Amino acid sequence: MSKSTDTELAEKMKIQLDKSKFNEWYNAVTDLADLTDKRYPVKGMNVWTPYGWRLMQNIDMLIHHEMVDTAHQEVCFPLLVPEEQFQREADHIKGFSDEVYWVSHAGGKDLDIPLLLRPTSETAMYPMFALWIRSHADLPLKSYQVINVYRHDTKQTRPFIRMREIHFFEAHTCHIDFEDAERQIDEDLAIMRRLCHALCIPYLVLKRPDWDKFPGAYYSLACDAMMPGDRTLQIGTIHQYRDNFAKAYEIEYEDAEGEHQFAHQTTYGMSERLIGAIIGIHGDDRGLILPPDIAPYQAAIVPIPKKGKQALIASECEKLQTTLEEAGVRVHLDERDIRPGSKFYDWELKGVPLRIELGPRDLANDAVMLVRRDTGKKEVVDRNAVVAEVRERFDQIADNLRSQAETRLEESIHTVHHFEDAMEADGIVRVAWCGNEECGLLIQDDIDKSMLGTKRDVDASEDPFEGNCLNCGKPTTTAAYFARTY
Amino acid sequence: MSKSTDTELAEKMKIQLDKSKFNEWYNAVTDLADLTDKRYPVKGMNVWTPYGWRLMQNIDMLIHHEMVDTAHQEVCFPLLVPEEQFQREADHIKGFSDEVYWVSHAGGKDLDIPLLLRPTSETAMYPMFALWIRSHADLPLKSYQVINVYRHDTKQTRPFIRMREIHFFEAHTCHIDFEDAERQIDEDLAIMRRLCHALCIPYLVLKRPDWDKFPGAYYSLACDAMMPGDRTLQIGTIHQYRDNFAKAYEIEYEDAEGEHQFAHQTTYGMSERLIGAIIGIHGDDRGLILPPDIAPYQAAIVPIPKKGKQALIASECEKLQTTLEEAGVRVHLDERDIRPGSKFYDWELKGVPLRIELGPRDLANDAVMLVRRDTGKKEVVDRNAVVAEVRERFDQIADNLRSQAETRLEESIHTVHHFEDAMEADGIVRVAWCGNEECGLLIQDDIDKSMLGTKRDVDASEDPFEGNCLNCGKPTTTAAYFARTY
Question: Quick check: ipTM above 0.90?
Fold first, then answer.
């Protein structure tokens, strides 16, 4: 939060960022770019500083727009869930009970009923859904909320990636039958595609193996992005619950024939991990690189001072700022009394997609200098065409980030047919699996990678493949994906 | 959430709303208008349903804009505060310890340090402020967040007015000295004026007596609105902390001379109580009346069907909706297959400021019918001038709500000079008070009303007054305000 001075920036500049040492790089860049403050004295709970919070809000805003366009309605449920309500779905309790925070007293007295902090909101919402839904005319019910969830995760915490207080998006839907719930899942996948297009993040959609599905789900789809450090990151999940929770929470409706039926349900979840993916996938040795659609500042104007022309340059920079703001560009004019070089360094660290320099020479030529964060490319452009030029650069930057990341994801997938190759391969390995749980678990252990799963519909030749199960040798047309994960 | 049918609405219509019985009315109208769902099984924690949540979000959006305009930066601090950190400011602990929820175990194990759910965020934020602030160049620090706070209040709960999970806005600022903190308070008061202008809520700004100030504050200003049920509602508070918390949390800065100084601090808080005030102050026997600036729907279009012209009317209604949406009006076209009368009833209940009817006669005359929610007044206006006409009605509705409420507030204030009059008077009584705590407390008890306080600066003849203290009889120029409160 400190308003950086030349001295403070000079201190920062001494820290050499090296993305090839990913863990150290990640830890340093989240600090240096003022994305979060990790000094809050509760493990796994950091402070959202203004810059990081604006980034999160911009992502949330894209999600809100997607929700409005797809007729989801925003709700906000209480944080605290009564014990009894939490314990109605057996698999769900088993899956979460090791991670749940409990509130058992208040104001010096024990509470009548122990309450827990939601680790996710199924158990808060579904008893209410049972009250809201009466007839088929009430379906589909499409709700979502953006809130925090709390999970006392015992693994090593990492900002945005593994937290105990998690900024969370969750959509919960109820449908007349399994098929309508499947259509919802198609819609969710389309939303994920549009959102990740804006974030320039490519990913695989994989159906998790049964032993790794969401507690209480019929099946779980997960979106896995390839991160540096040779691990994948789960950035979104979509669960088909069938009528499993509906039976536990009595979510019933009267169909057109007057018969009582259980609703079929889905959920779709994402979190601040999207920021973790953006940092990891796009960043470089100079710091963050933020996709233009969600960057808090899409462009930073840096005046290049010249004796005797200070006021003129300052005034032209202000005009430039106004022009861009009026065109809807999120632009910041950096008027700090520090050297331009310090400003360049600072905005590069913070990942601002485009730097706009305006100095005496530009002034003389009625031009401005555009500097792309992703490539470092400098271009002098006509001052009068600046809005169009800036917009064109944003598109180019997004295209470049996207295609670089796509290439890296594709290159990280290795189809292999032998154990040794599967063990040695980096990234994501794609191997033959007969579908048997025992074989899957053995392969996991032997190659020291987790099974991410298979494509959603292997029968529909979404992922054509032929091979012999890596464990039992049985011929199969199913490819399973394995990787080390964050 | 249920998509109301004729039958369901007919059930609702049987409930007779009578605002003169305020408590019952308030309870019924919050249910009937789908503002909240009170059936969540934790006392004082309700579900924000889509309609209520949109209303809250619209209010929050006005606050966000005010914060941006006044250079506050949004942050988001963790919910959980370590015990030690909470206990550094003695008065603050004393004030809140009876209401605090404690988290003492997670995943079946005791936590190393007990954590509490923030009842407000001073104790979460200030240790971090101590790290963020180094020099006078870092000041003023102006932060705010919109989050939930948790208070195990033992009084009777009431939706939006007295909850245990509270949707909360809190601004926290740090300044070089007392005077700069005072200037911040002036800015906060100006923000409150602009915000409440939009909400059409008049209020008194009163300096709470010392025995009722915020725990840890040097002084507290509160904004009190006059509600039905003969009680006032505190809808906002602004606290001057001086360097009291800064000393407890070591928030120090180096001044221009290199000397270490403690920062002076203020806070400004508001909550979902703003909705409570809107409901109570503007509503009537037909339901809510929402000020146009924050109504989820500013206008509802109701087609008046006519055999043989159904499709034509429907298509004209769609065109009307598009015209208004393109002009930035939040408009809803009610296409439900229920009687127009049921729709009228429903939108009146929900407080939509303007109803727009379009039927065969309007079609013939190239007109639409506007019906004001506040007055019930019907006016046929030119279809081609509809945007301007609608906007004009919004202004008229807001002006009318504001002036009605202002009149009621003014009429509720009674300046009295005798005990009997003070006891018998309804509303807010304004009486002479010598300034002595003992006298103030005795007057409170004797007239069975709480002291709200005095004007901020009685010396500056903000509130000219002459009288003899109602308890000791000493002559005084200070007027104190008393009322029963929610």
Answer: yes
